[in-house]
Amino acid sequence: MTTMTQPRVLTFRRSIRVARVAIVAFLVLNLAAVQVMFAAAGPAGDLFGTIGRLLGLYLALAMAFQLLLVARLPMVDRAYGMDRLTSWHRWTGMAIFWLAAAHPAFVLLGFARQDGVPVLDVAVTLAKQPPVLLGMIAAGLLLVIVALSIRVARRRLSYETWHAIHFLLYVVVLLGVLHQVYEGTAFKVNVLTQAYWWGLWAFAIGALLAGRLVVPLIRNSRHRLRVAAIVAESDDTVSVHVTGRDLDRLPARAGQFFLWRFPGQNRWWQVNPFSLSAAPNSRSLRLTAKGVGATSAGLRDLPIGSKVYAEGPYGAFTAAHRTRGATVLIAGGIGVTPIRALLEDPDLTGHVVVLYRVRAVEDAVLLGELRNLADVRRARLHLLTGRTGTGYQPFAPERLLALVPDITARDVYVCGPDAMTTSVLASLRRLRVPSRQVHAERFRLAG
């Protein structure tokens, strides 16, 4: 990997600003287009029906936006990072759920008031029509997805199971499109509205197929990734070295992650987002994982030479997003993997301080490599051990300031358990570290 020159860094930052402006403009224009279509269609039979029609338009628009988030478009990923996009994915999903509940409710109320019959009777009558029934089934599946995505339920599911359940989203989209074909009225006002509406959906579905199917298939066919070596880092942590063809053409950067599948060893839906634990080069890639799920626990048993299917790279947790000359890298547990890769990255210039949080020294995976890299680049490495309690808060504001007195003048990269990351981010806010200097990776993946 070649080091990014200052002009290249400036060009990258300008491209991010342009991308963000384009994304915001896309959202605003589509919201405006929906309002124009709604106005052109005119009111429905009564107020409730009119509100139901408007909510239906916003529901369909939100579903199209959700497809674009799940597509993981490179431009959007580079501009905002997968962690922020996943947060938007969650909020968009909740909006879709409430719109899916409110849209039919207002439509039913509208028909009930017009015909002077009970709402339940209207629901039974409409359910006998296949297009309406498809919409009801889609709403029911949405209820299942949202219910299983609530934090309490999510914690009881393995990542692989939760990821597989999210495939129901595609079924919901299919049913929703069929429902629009037969029941949509507001976008059928004229040829222009129909061209816009189906153009938007064609773009969303095309982006999804390209980003999640076509591009990964082409890349994996080109690079032909294979397991080159398995190295046990501790009793429950293993590194997998992956080799392949023309890896210099793979646009991966230190700090990014891939979705990894191992055909023949795991089922096709068993996939995990593992960060690169070393800066990528033209010869190999390396991932390091702790055995907590079905996929990660089986990594140490992978045969040498077995096939690897990787989707990505993803994430904006890279040196290209720095805004200052010096950096703080904060890692917790297995979250050290992208931090270790960043420490090796020649693009991460300037002075670096590394804070590595573990309960005990024996839990510090890749500690030897961190120490060697810190010595080479004259970085400061602090290993923070011990149990967090009332008397010991390793990432309290005053503690961070004692370890890194000039932390407000540095970029801060944070990766670790969710509780630790939340604590660090809260302390950085109290220390008034500008948000543009804070970069976090939580591995809350969309779709």
Please, could you describe this protein's structure?
Its main location: membrane. This protein is α/β, with parallel strands linked by helices. The protein folds into 3 domains: 6-217, no CATH class; 224-314, Elongation Factor Tu (Ef-tu), domain 3 (Beta Barrel), CATH 2.40.30; 320-441, Nucleotide-binding domain of ferredoxin-NADP reductase (FNR) module (Rossmann fold, 3-Layer(aba) Sandwich), CATH 3.40.50. 52% of the residues lie in helices and 14% in strands. The chain has helices at 6-41, 47-70, 74-80, 82-115, 119-127, 130-149, 151-154, 159-165, 168-183, 191-223, 294-297, 336-344, 367-377, 397-403, 418-430, and strands at residues 226-232, 237-243, 257-261, 272-275, 284-290, 309-314, 326-332, 352-357, 380-384, 410-415, 438-441. The strands form 3 sheets. The chain has a 5-stranded parallel sheet with strand order 9-8-7-10-11, sandwiched between helices. A 3-stranded antiparallel sheet has the order 1-2-5, with no helix packed on it. α13 (367-377) links the parallel β8 and β9. α4 packs across α6 (130-149). The model is unreliable at 1-5 (pLDDT under 50).
Quaternary structure of the protein: single chain
Write the element-wise H/E pattern from the N-terminal end onward: HHHHHHHHHHEEEEEHEEHEHEHEHE
Fraction of residues in H or I helices: 40-55%
- Estimated share of beta-strand residues: 5-15%
Number of DSSP helices?
Answer: 15
Task: Please compute the radius of gyration using only Cα atoms.
Answer: 25 Å
Query: For the largest beta sheet, what order do the strands appear in spatially?
Result: 9-8-7-10-11
What about the largest sheet?
5 strands, parallel
Number of domains: 3
Shape: elongated
Pfam family, one: NAD_binding_1
Subcellular location: Membrane
GO molecular function: 2 iron, 2 sulfur cluster binding; flavin adenine dinucleotide binding; metal ion binding; oxidoreductase activity
Keywords: 2Fe-2S, FAD, Flavoprotein, Iron, Iron-sulfur, Membrane, Metal-binding, Oxidoreductase, Transmembrane, Transmembrane helix
